[in-house]
Every structure is written in C-alpha cells, then in structure tokens.
C-alpha cells in the first residue's frame, strides 16, 4: 500500500521519532511511505529519508487544506497516518469535498486527544489513551471506528544484554533531560536517605537541561558527590557503556505518557525503578517487571532500592521478566507486525 505519514504542530518530543519509527516498520513489510510535515518542524531531521513540506498555520486554514487536497490527489494514498490533532483536521478538511474515502488513522501520543477524534481509526500507544479517546466518542462512533493499542517501540541492543545479578555497590543510572517532571531530584534524595543509613549506591545521572545546576547543588548539599556523577549529554557509545555498568535504571517520572527509557531498560535487561504515575503504569507492573514507587516520594523509592539490594534474587527475576517483555512485546519486530496488521485491517474495512 501507499501511505502518507504526517505530523503537524510541535513534534520535538517522542512524536517525531515515532513518526520515523512507523515509517521503518511499514517499509519493512513492503509499503511505500510518504512523509509530510509542516514548517514548524523544519529543525527536525528525517535523516536520508525525503520528506515533503506544506505549511499550515492553524486547524482551519483553507489555503493549507487546498494544498493538502492537491497533495492527496497527486500521491493517491491508500491510507493516511496522522501523528497530531492538526494533521488529522488538516487531512479530514482537505477530503470533505473530494468524493473519495481514504481512512485517516490518528496515532495518539499524548493525553490531549480532543483534536484527534475526527479520525477514522486510532493507534493508541497506551490503554489509558485509548480510554480517553473512547470516552469522547459516542456509542455509534465507537461501534464503527477502529482502535488498536500499539506501544512505542524499542530497538534491542546489539549485544545479548542478559539480566545479571546485582553488583556491589549497586549502580543506578538515569538517562534524562534535567527538568522537574523527570524526577531526578527524587532519585538524588533517595540516594541521600540510603547514604544516611550507610547504604551506599552509585548513581550516573546523564543528560542536560535547565535544572542540572540545581541538581548538582543538591548533591553537594547532601554531601554525596562521591556517589553521584553528572556526565552531561552522552553519545551512543557512552550510552551503551552506562547501560553495561548499571544494575538499575531509574525512571521516577512525576508526569509522563509512556517513558521510552523504560522500554530501553527492558531491552537491556535492567531492573527498572519507576513511579506509579499513570504513564509509567501503562508499562510497569510492581514487582513483576519493575519496582514501582509512589510518585514524588523519595523515601518510598529509597525503601524499594534497599529492599532489592537485600533481595537480589527477586531483583534478578524482575529484570528477567522485563527482558522477556522487551523481546515479546516492545521490540521493533513485534511492533512492526502490529503496525502492518492494523494498517491492513483499516484499509480492508474502509475500501
């Protein structure tokens, strides 16, 4: 099939990479994928892959809709995949008077779903997002619009990355933007609380952001500089080295949709330290594939780390289950199968 794969609006988060990922998964099954973006994402790279550009200044731009209509007529796609509310509205408006039915599939990456409900079908990256969309649709709409929950994907590391017993001292890594909602400060305080009990764990906090200096000062104030490193932004080789040296990966998000760091950590066979925010809970199951602490609660996180250190067999079982799910659910090949199957289901339903 020929598929237009498009995003409008700010795509600086995981949305842009998700658009490229779905192009990769569908091309693996022989589909022709045409990329389209607005001018607001000119700073984002599609690599060697060509990408079309049509400007759109809002949800109701008649000029943009006419340009999109011409683009559709030229490309003659079988399916359209839209990664934002703007993209959904733009393509639905463009086809109002075309006299053809080309299904628009909205890929919902966030909890702000109100602009995507005009789509004909939906890919939701989590069950919670599906719930939010269905709650906005009437019974009649839900009866004929197709839904599928398909997670974001992760790429398995080149090496086996098998789960290993905890080392002494335990090393906890965090690869993140240094901003409040990522929970860096929660991990730092947890390490401090453990240190006060003479339980010392090493931490590698890689990344940069507006709050990095604040977190570095926090470490100094707690007098745990000997335990915590701030390597800053890291390249792919350094990232691999950190995963190899880490026993646990911390993703104690205060507010997130589906932290991709969790999926990567599963692929590396690591013990994930997560929070019980609704986003991480779409992936993490406490004491099954992750250790889930109360959101924003450093003491609860510290208690969990201490428990795992004293129960290494349970920590290893958690890591093994995470690796199993990476292989069976979240890796590229599994998600590619899901994408291909759903695209065919939607096409066959609407042709």
What is the tally of beta strands? 13
Query: Mind telling me the C-alpha Rg?
Result: 22 Å
- Kindly report how far apart the N and C termini lie: 12 Å
- Report low-confidence residues grouped into runs of 5 or more: none
Please trace the helix and strand order, writing H or E for each element: EHEEHEHEEHHEEHEHEHEHEEHHH
Shape: elongated
Mean residue pLDDT:
95
What is the topology, as strand order, of the major beta sheet? 3-2-1-4-5-6-7
Number of helices: 12
The percentage helix is: 40-55%
Summarize the biggest pleated sheet.
7 strands, parallel
Structural classification:
alpha/beta
Strand content: 15-25%
Secondary-structure topology with pairs:
Elements: E1 2-7, H1 14-28, E2 32-37, E3 52-53, H2 62-75, E4 79-82, H3 85-94, E5 104-108, E6 121-124, H4 127-136, H5 139-144, E7 146-149, E8 171-175, H6 184-196, E9 202-206, H7 212-222, E10 228-232, H8 236-245, E11 248-251, H9 260-267, E12 271-275, E13 291-293, H10 298-310, H11 312-330, H12 332-350
Parallel strand pairs: 1-2, 1-4, 2-3, 4-5, 5-6, 6-7, 8-9, 8-11, 9-10, 11-12, 12-13
């Amino acid at each position: 099939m020929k598929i237009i794969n498009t995003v409008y609006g700010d795509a600086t988060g995981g949305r842009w990479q998700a658009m490229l990922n779905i192009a990769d998964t569908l091309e693996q099954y022989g589909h022709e994928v045409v990329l389209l973006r607005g001018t607001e994402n000119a700073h984002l790279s599609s690599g060697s892959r060509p990408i079309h550009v049509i400007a759109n200044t809002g949800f109701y731009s008649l000029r943009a809709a006419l340009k999109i209509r011409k683009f559709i007529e030229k490309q003659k796609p079988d399916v359209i995949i839209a990664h934002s509310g703007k993209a959904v509205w733009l393509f639905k408006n463009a086809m109002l008077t075309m006299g053809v039915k080309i299904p628009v599939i909205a890929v919902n990456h966030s909890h702000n779903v109100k602009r995507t409900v005009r789509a004909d079908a939906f890919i939701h990256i989590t069950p919670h997002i599906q719930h939010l969309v269905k709650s906005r649709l009437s019974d009649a709409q839900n009866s004929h619009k197709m839904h599928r929950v398909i997670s974001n994907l992760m790429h398995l590391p080149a090496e086996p990355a098998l789960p290993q017993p905890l080392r002494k001292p335990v090393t906890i890594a965090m690869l993140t933007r240094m901003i409040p909602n990522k929970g860096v400060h929660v991990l730092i305080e947890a390490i401090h609380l453990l240190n006060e009990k003479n339980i010392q764990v090493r931490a590698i906090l890689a990344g940069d952001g507006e709050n990095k200096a604040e977190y570095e000062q926090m470490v100094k104030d707690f007098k745990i500089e000997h335990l915590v490193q701030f390597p800053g932004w890291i390249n792919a080789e350094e990232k691999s080295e950190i995963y190899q040296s880490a026993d646990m990966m911390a993703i104690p998000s205060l507010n997130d949709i589906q932290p991709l760091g969790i999926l990567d950590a599963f692929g590396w066979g690591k013990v994930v330290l997560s929070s019980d925010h609704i986003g991480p809970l779409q992936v993490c199951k406490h004491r099954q594939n992750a250790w889930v602490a109360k959101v924003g609660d450093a003491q609860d996180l510290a208690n969990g780390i201490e428990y795992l250190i004293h129960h290494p067999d349970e920590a290893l079982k958690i890591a093994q289950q995470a690796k199993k799910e990476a292989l069976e659910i979240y890796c590229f090949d599994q998600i590619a199968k899901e994408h291909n199957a759903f695209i065919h289901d939607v096409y066959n339903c609407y042709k």
